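ARCHIVE CARD
CATEGORY: sequence design from structure
SOURCE FIELD: tokenized fold
FIELD CONTENT:
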């Protein structure tokens, strides 16, 4: 089992330099490695496995964090990760957050081939089409995980799954469910349709109302929700690929819902319909 480094690792160390550069997408793609920061993400990474071994390959920790989160450091070592004790200066140099929590892990890419997602016959999927904001992408992934979705798909026009902001916003959910990346939206939709999944595009201007779809019992089958860019929504050509374009009803005076909130409502609506034994009432009814 790899030992904890006996001394604080130097800021000039090649290991520190290699970790620091993972803040940039081109280096992440070249090395097929990404950063996971904070105790929650590191714990999830330590417990996750990819085909050829453990996901977590390296951990940098301040002395204080190593003592406070001794269980996580132990899990990291058990997973085979090399653990480096580091000064706060080193952690700040590697971290992409304003207030680092003392733990930064280096992880292997863990995305799943789209064909494997289809082969698993998923009943609930979130498709992120043209979603460029990493915080939104990570939060929708977290919502999908919480709602019990079996997969998330990021199209080729969407943000990098391993962007540090996306990883942080997922709060560990990145390690919980299959995520396929770089899939053209047309291929994603057609593949899911061929697998028997109904495609619903979430759009504020949709011609179908989510409440009405629920009340008429139309949402109990396998479903994929397609979510678009928060600023401009889904382009017409993407909406045209869907089996239906559905809007979340606004009962109050709010102009709209942000992407993550709308995604949570839609995914939970499908989750409830799929689990209901005797029908379901409107999730937005008071």
């Amino acid at each position: 089992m790899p030992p904890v480094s006996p001394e604080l690792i130097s800021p000039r160390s090649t290991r520190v330099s290699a970790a620091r550069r993972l803040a940039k997408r081109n280096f992440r793609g070249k090395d097929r490695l990404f950063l996971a920061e904070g105790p929650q993400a590191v714990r999830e990474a330590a417990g996750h496995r990819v085909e050829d071994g453990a996901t977590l390959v390296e951990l940098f920790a301040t002395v204080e964090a190593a003592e406070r989160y001794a269980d996580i450091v132990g899990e990291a070592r058990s997973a085979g990760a090399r653990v480096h004790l580091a000064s706060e200066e080193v952690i700040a140099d590697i971290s992409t957050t304003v207030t680092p929590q003392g733990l930064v892990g280096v992880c292997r890419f863990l995305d799943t081939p789209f064909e494997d997602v289809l082969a698993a016959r998923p009943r609930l999927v979130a498709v992120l089409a043209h979603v460029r904001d990493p915080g939104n992408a990570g939060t929708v992934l977290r919502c999908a995980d919480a709602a019990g979705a079996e997969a998330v798909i990021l199209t080729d026009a969407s943000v990098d799954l391993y962007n540090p902001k996306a990883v942080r916003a997922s709060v560990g959910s990145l390690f919980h469910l299959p995520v396929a990346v770089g899939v053209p939206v047309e291929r994603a939709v057609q593949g899911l349709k061929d697998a028997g999944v109904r495609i619903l595009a979430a759009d504020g201007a949709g011609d179908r109302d989510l409440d009405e779809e629920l009340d008429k019992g139309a949402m109990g089958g396998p479903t994929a929700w397609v979510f678009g860019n928060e600023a401009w929504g889904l382009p017409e050509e993407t909406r045209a690929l869907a089996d239906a374009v559905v809007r979340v009803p606004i009962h109050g005076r709010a102009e709209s819902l942000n992407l993550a909130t709308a995604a949570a409502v839609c995914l939970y609506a499908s989750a409830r319909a799929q689990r209901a034994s005797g029908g379901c009432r409107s999730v937005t009814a008071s």
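CARD ANNOTATION: Confidence is low (pLDDT under 50) at residues 277-286. The CA atoms of residues 248 and 266 lie 8 Å apart.
SHELF: design records, drawer C
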